[in-house]
Amino acid sequence: MDLTHRPRRLRRDGVRGLVSETSLSASDLVAPVFVDATTDERQPIESMPGHERVPLDDAVARVEEVLETGVEAVILFGIPESKDEVGSRAYADDGVVQEATRRITGETDAYVITDVCLCEYTSHGHCGVVEDHAADDPDLTVDNDETLDLLAETAVSHAEAGAEMVAPSSMTDGMVAAIREALDDAGFSDIPIMSYAAKYESAFYGPFRDAADGAPAFGDRRHYQMDPANRREAGREVALDVEQGADVLMVKPALPYLDIVSDVRREFDRPVAAYNVSGEYAMLHAAAEQGWLDLDAVARESLLSIKRAGADLIITYFAEDVAESL
Ligand code: PBG
């Protein structure tokens, strides 16, 4: 054959690495850590093999394990000792995340990001204050504007405890502006906000809701998280967060939403984060347990693909395993 172009020429070892367009590094990864105020012992998370909820006294040790793999950043989620209608333990100075943050930033070099939301802290499990309606009222929803102050208070309490970045995940309209203003007023103008800017109402969060005990007691999150059918709407959501001062823009979930990651990369000049969520982790593990997939290989390929689509950083339950294999 007289072929002018033979793309295979550049696929051999030796040159392959030289022309590779994307690379993965431990410094791109953020490991989620669950701190549980209701237990004295580590509790395995059944639907997320290899992950545990750790008691406060183990928070530092858990983060040290992460650091040993080369991963330098963690995002903290808390399971509080008690819940109420208004999620008081989310913004309590001695709350589980505040206490864990104080210890971790005091004793390790990890970069500590905190998830700012109310769903793990409210008795009804919604990401904000619920309107005064009967629980079976089909119109019942989260009161957007009432929730803003509580999110702002939560973010400030995390910063006071030493959090280096806050990540609001409740999809409350105006949350970035409210948090930015509150942080600035409290003297934290140097703390960046990573907004869960395009967060979809996804069934892939199932294992996380077991892990963090944050499933809604009634209804679902359709009235505040985005409809998986919508692509252009993500552009509008992200633009609002940029206007309000978001420093990093997150798309969540990651793998089923790579078109959105790619759009945000192209349309906005801000760092892009992608959250490779609990269900994405659980399904690869389940298939690997059956012997149907090579876990290391598919985990690495997943993260590489998320970067190729345009993510600068990835929050992933695979962080430690992949960092170790790099
Ligand atoms: C809190 C929050 C959720 C996740 C991250 N922050 C749950 C949700 O929105 O239901 C999901 C993460 C995952 O599935 O790994 N709002």
UniProtKB/TrEMBL annotation:
One of its GO terms (cellular component) is cytosol. Keywords: Heme biosynthesis, Lyase, Magnesium, Metal-binding, Porphyrin biosynthesis, Zinc. InterPro entries: ALAD, ALAD_AS, Aldolase_TIM. It is an enzyme of class 4 (lyase). One of its GO terms (biological process) is protoporphyrinogen IX biosynthetic process. One of its GO terms (molecular function) is porphobilinogen synthase activity. Pathway: Porphyrin-containing compound metabolism; protoporphyrin-IX biosynthesis; coproporphyrinogen-III from 5-aminolevulinate: step 1/4. Its EC number is 4.2.1.24. It comes from the Archaea. It catalyses: 2 5-aminolevulinate = porphobilinogen + 2 H2O + H(+). Pfam families: ALAD (PF00490). 5-aminolevulinate 2 binds at residues 278, 317. Zn(2+) binds at residues 117, 119, 127. 5-aminolevulinate 1 binds at residues 209, 221. Mg(2+) binds at residue 237. Transmembrane segments: none annotated. The active site is at residues 199, 252. Belongs to the ALAD family. Homooctamer. PANTHER family: DELTA-AMINOLEVULINIC ACID DEHYDRATASE (PTHR11458:SF0). This is Delta-aminolevulinic acid dehydratase. It comes from Halobacterium jilantaiense. The lineage of its organism: Archaea, Methanobacteriati, Methanobacteriota, Stenosarchaea group, Halobacteria.
